[in-house]
Amino acid sequence: MPPTFRSSLINLQHINFQDFSNSLTPEEAREPSTALLASIARTGILHPPILREQGRTRMEIVTGRRRLLAAQQTQHSISTICLVLPADTLPAEALALNLEDTLLRGDITVVEQAIFFQKILDHLNEDEAARRFLPALGLEPHRHHLHNLLQLLGLEEHLLGAVHEGRLHDGVARELLALNFTDRLSLYEVMEMLSLSVSNQKKITTACRELAARHNTSIMGLLCQPQVREILNPRETNIPQKTARLMQWLTEQRFPRLAAAEQEFRSFAAALKLPSAVALTHSPSFEQDQVQLSIPFADRKELRRVWPLIADILKTQ
Known about the structure:
alpha/beta, 317 residues, 55% helix
């Protein structure tokens, strides 16, 4: 049965902004964004927040905290139109409304999903929570999905905020949870410093875990090595260059034989003094000693002109 609302002009002083019982956002993301502030400054609140009565004059926020804060900050509003739920509305139903409202926004994050289930499980058992709400998220109603989401809440607050904002991939975040505190923060610090893509976040996590285990050291110790600091510290080097150098260094440490073969091949190619437009490549991972020479031609006419010379050379092989 749909909830019963009443529309009312609410004095903002009657709203309990310190009550976060229905909030689905991590602490670092509770302030209104610049875009929201600008929108509400132009047009006011277009989508009414939902409140629940706490008494004669006190209101609990169900949805719309950032909209209300933005109205306070940009319009210095004293009151605004809200939808109000009666005081006897069950906490689980208030949370369900917040989830529905967040889903309508169209970009619910895995962190918001995790926080929702953490809170709803105070009121419902896992089976009922999975059955009622996982399908709305496009997931099968199995408890392991709940556990996967709740696992993320073991992250430190600023890492959780990074997942929420899309700066840290949730799959990588789960791998970080398997590390100890210092290793986790050391690795994330590098990811944040270099603004690594999802692909590079995964690569650096795999490489650092493997190298730390191989050398019986910590990831923090690995990333504190002078070679890494020399890559990360120079101010004159831009972020893409630092990223490329770090990923190359990690690859060389993981695959020293391959790195040595690559260096030997570069020396071999340099000794040939090939024109800059000519490319010499080796087989993948040097599985064979075969090499390939690529020569660009301006057009087909140029190729026809040169081809007899190339064909004569090939005949002598």
